[in-house]
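To: structure subgroup
Subject: Chain for Friday's discussion

All,

I'm putting the inputs and outputs inline so they're searchable in the archive.
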Amino acid sequence: MSTIDRVSTAQTTAYMLGQINQANAALDKTSQQIASGDTATTYAGFGNQTQVLQATISANARNSAYTTATTLATTQADIQDTQLTSLSGLATQLQSAVSSAVANNDPSTLMTTVQSIFSQATSILNSQDANGDYIYGGGNSTTPPVSVTSLSQLTALGSSAAGAFTNGNDLKSVQVADGQTVTYGMTASSIGQGLMQEIQNIANFDAGGTGNFSGSTNLSQAQNNFLTGEISAVNTVSTNLNNVTAQNGDAYNALQSAASQQSDMSTLYSGFISNIQDTNMANAATQLQLNQTALQAALQVTSTLNQLTLLNYMPAATTTG
C-alpha cells in the first residue's frame, strides 16, 4: 500500500458508479420518451395505469368498429330514403292516372302508365348495393326479391301479388354501441306488395272480359265502377308508403345520432389514452435537463474522489525566515 493512501474507497467508488448508472438510465428513458412521444413502450411501463389504459384502448377499438358499421348502415338508409320516396311517388302517379281516366272518361293511356310504374317499381325493389347484394332481399341477398318481370307474369299469379316476392324476412340491423342496436333494413314485400297488388288488380281487370282499357275511348259502367274503387285503394297504398318512408327516416336519424355519439366517444377515448400514453414534452424537456445535470454531477464527483489523497487534507507547509 502506498505511504499516502487515497481517500476514496472501493465501497465509495461502487456507490458513485451506481449513481452514474442510475442517472444514465433516467437520461436514456427521458430521451426515449421525447424521441418516441410515448411515456413508455410496454404496458408495464405505465405502472398502476396499465389496466385503465388497456380497457380504454379496447373500448376505443370497439367504438371504431361500431363507427364503420354505422357508416355503412347510414349509407343504406339514405339510399332507401331516396327509393322509398320514389315508390311513394309512383303510387301517387298511379292514383293520378286512375283518377284522370275516371274524370276524363278516357282510359286509353292508363295501361301504358301502369306498365311504366310496374317496371320502375320492380327496378327499385330489385336494387343492389355496392357488393351486388339485393338491398330488400331480407337475408336472401343473391336472388331478386321480385321474381316477375312483366305484367303478364304478374297477372298469371292470380288474384294475389304475394307470389311475386321471393325475399326473406330478416331485417338488417347494426350494433351502434355496447348493448345498443338500430334496425334499418326493409324487405321488398313489406314495402312493395301493396303497390304491386293494385297494379295486378288493374292488369287483371284489363285482361278480363270488361277490361281492354287501351282499346276504349270512354269508360263503360263496369270500368268506371272498378276504377272508382281503385282510387281509394291506391290512395291507401300511397299513405302506407309515406309511413314506411317516415319509419326509414326515423332509423336514419337514429343512426346519425349514434354516429355523433361515436365521434364524441372517440374524442374522449383518444384524449384519455393520450393523457396516459403520450409524453408531456414540456415536462420531459425539463426532466431531460435535470437528468443531464445529475449524470454530469455524478461523473464529476466520481472523478474527483478517485484523485483525492490524504495530501489534500494536510495543512500547507509553513515557511520560516
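Points worth raising on Friday:
The longest strand covers residues 173-177.
The domain at 65-275 is CATH 1.20.1330.10 (f41 fragment of flagellin, N-terminal domain).

D.
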